[in-house]
Amino acid sequence: MIRYKKLGYVALGVTDLERSITYYRDLVGLQLNLQEEGVAYFSCSDDHHNLVLYQNDVAGLKRIAWEMESDAELDNAADTFKKHGLDVYELPTEESKGIFQGRTLRFIEPNDGICFELYNQQYKRATSYQPTVSKIARLGHVVVSFSDWDASIKFFREVMNFDTSDSIDGFINFMRCFPNPYHHTLGVSNAKLRGDRPGLHHVNFMVTDMDDIGRALNRMPENNIPIVFGPGRHPPSGSIFYYFLDPDGMTVEYSFGMEEFPEENPRKPRSLEPRPDSGDYWGSVPKEDWAQAGDILPAKPQLIGQLL
Ligand SMILES: CC(C)c1ccc(C(=O)O)c(O)c1O
Ligand SMILES: [Fe+2]
Hints:
The chain is α/β, with parallel strands linked by helices and 308 residues long. It has helices at 17-28, 71-83, 93-98, 149-158, 210-222; strands spanning 4-14, 31-36, 39-43, 51-55, 60-68, 88-90, 104-108, 115-119, 136-146, 162-168, 172-177, 186-190, 199-207, 227-233, 240-245, 251-256, 270-272, 295-296, 306-307.
């Protein structure tokens, strides 16, 4: 059983880094911890980074990273993945230090070629995240549209030891990274419902107060940010949500509240009927550009570390 601590960070490619830095810092409310040539590290915790933006020709998903419970779990994960025939790479120490992390492994997820990363720890910051426009509680989840929905769910369940909390049948499977309690840190969405285009669906930040959602209801439209779904309440996790677009058209979600699962004797996963009110109790309807932008950005295995 592989044991994860949490979803650690997501790395996105953006087409105008300065524009996106302004957006994620001043409107979403993340703290810019470091900007280097072509890359910006943001945090919403005492971690060095929970979102990393890279200047890129095309906007999209570059990497999703999970923090492991311990160093031993990193080795356990590497052994498990290798047994399943995956190539697992470890970043040389200088490189993992260069991204402010301890031991860092990477592999290419086999269905759509997403770069996944596991690490044992990140550098902590002496002064933690200082909230500004919004009190972000954590990076909540990433949802990705996969080309083979069933095969992807099977991979995350059987190889990565993720558990399904709920699904909306044929549309999205909500998975938690065992034994992390949150209802989902990864949403496996079905690319068939997106014109057979795998890619980023959305990135979620959980906020601390209902007021953080309330303030965004004013702040985002006042700054001409496209609102693409909500406000509403999701039946699966019970969270109150609000979705808006980033400067490249990628979808960002704020949510407040989420069901938590015990490690032992969790409730059974539910399968919800694929109908609009399974996505929102309150009756809002997603706009056409909701969850449309964001390619899967290919990673070259030889550039992601040394083969274990
Ligand atoms: C409609 C989208 C995919 C959705 C549905 C439910 C939840 C939840 O229960 O938290 C989400 O976070 C979603 O993004
Ligand atoms: Fe979500």
